[in-house]
Amino acid sequence: MPIIDFHLHLFSRVYFETVAALSPQPGSVAERLADVQKRLGIEIPPADLAAHVQRWLRSFDEHGVEHAAAFASVPEEIPVLSEARVLSGGRLTPFAMVNPRAPDCAQRVGKLIREQGFGGVLLFPALHHYRVSDAECAGLFSELDRHSAVAFVHCGELIVKLRDVLGIARTADPKFADPLDIVSVAKANPRATFVIPHFGAGRFHETLEAGRSCENIVVDSSSSNSWIARADGGLDLQTVFARALEVFGSKRVLFGTDSTTFPKGWQRARLDEQRAVLTALGASDGDQRAIFQGNSARLLKLGA
Ligand SMILES: [Zn+2]
After folding, report:
1. 133 CA distance to ligand 1 middle (Å)
2. What is the 245 CA–ligand 1 centroid distance (Å)?
3. Nearest 5°: CA angle at 75, between 221 and 200?
4. Residue 223 lies in a domain
5. How remote is the CA of residue 226 from the centroid of ligand 1, in Å?
6. Which residue range forms the structural domain that includes residue 131?
7. pLDDT in tens, 270-299
8. Cα of 30 from ligand 1 centre, angstroms
9. Which pLDDT band, with edges at 50, 70 and 90, does 232 fall under?
10. Ligand 1 centre and the CA of 287: distance in Å?
């Protein structure tokens, strides 16, 4: 079965340079990145975007991945993702990381969707200190609704390893990371879809509650879901999937990996562990096809 990864960060050179420029550490951006490379054991991608995209596609081919939702992980990376989509021959659907309070956000996002094949946006309310239900965000969501587009709303824990290594202060405020804040916005914008990544990243109970309230709220299964080990009540990945399927059903759970960097590339282990869990739960072939491919194809309007 061909796989669609609904949650992947392209992490281009522009991303690394943008974040490194925020660091209070001494030295040039290039020196800071050389240090990051050593400390995290990752490769800083080349400035040649075509080569970087080709490397991702080779990694996809190796593992049977036909398509991915790929994020610009900082606003500065949006033009890079637009170019990456073209370079990928349409195998990447880009998403724009935006701050809805930035001037003209709604208009800019509308243009990205109409003219550059973007699937929607990636939001970090805890990082940018807003609630999605704030009146000033309403314009963005009606634009997404108009285009039946997708908003990934990061809730729960937010740890960005690169920012930590670069000594950038953690300013994320968990009070803005509540999945229940999405409910009123999702009800007001029924044609848009709201994705809560990583099953809520530690806000599982609220994620289930939000899912019960609105059909257009869905979850993605991406990342190692390391929050599960820190959760109360002896949760494990299998229990998380079982409860998510009870509430959301197989049409509203989407497979993702949260792949980010090389040399690791596309994170095959996420597929293997999630497939094993779903098989152990007795999920039918049809349900697994929906989770690993069909639901993403529907929301990304592939083949439409
Ligand atoms: Zn992610």
Report:
1. 22
2. 21
3. 25
4. yes
5. 13
6. 3-299
7. 999 999 999 999 999 999 999 999 999 999
8. 24
9. confident
10. 24
CA angle at residue 159 from 154 to 164, to 5 degrees? 140
Ligand 1 centroid to residue 257 C-alpha, Å = 8
How many A from CA of 8 to the centre of ligand 1?
6
Q: Is residue 304 part of a domain?
A: no
CATH no. for residue 159? 3.20.20.140
Task: Say how many Å lie between the CA of residue 7 and the centre of ligand 1.
Answer: 6
Answer for the pair 4, 119: CB distance below 8 angstroms, yes or no: no
For residue 222, what are its two tokens?
């991406």
Asked if residue 208 is part of any domain, the answer here is yes
Q: How many domains are there within the chain? A: 1
The pLDDT value recorded for residue 1 is 81
Give distance in angstroms: CA of 68 to centre of ligand 1: 13
Q: Which two tokens stand for residue 158?
A: 């937010």
pTM of the predicted model as reported, rounded to 2 decimal places: 0.96
Residue 58 CA, ligand 1 centroid: distance in Å: 21
Residue type, 60: F
Euclidean distance between CA atoms 27 and 30, whole angstroms: 8
Model confidence pLDDT, tens digit, residues 248-269: 999 999 999 999 999 999 999 9
How many angstroms is it from 146 CA to the middle of ligand 1?
25
Number of H helices, E strands in the chain: 15, 8
**Has residue 155 been placed in a domain?**
yes
d(CA 274, CA 260): 18
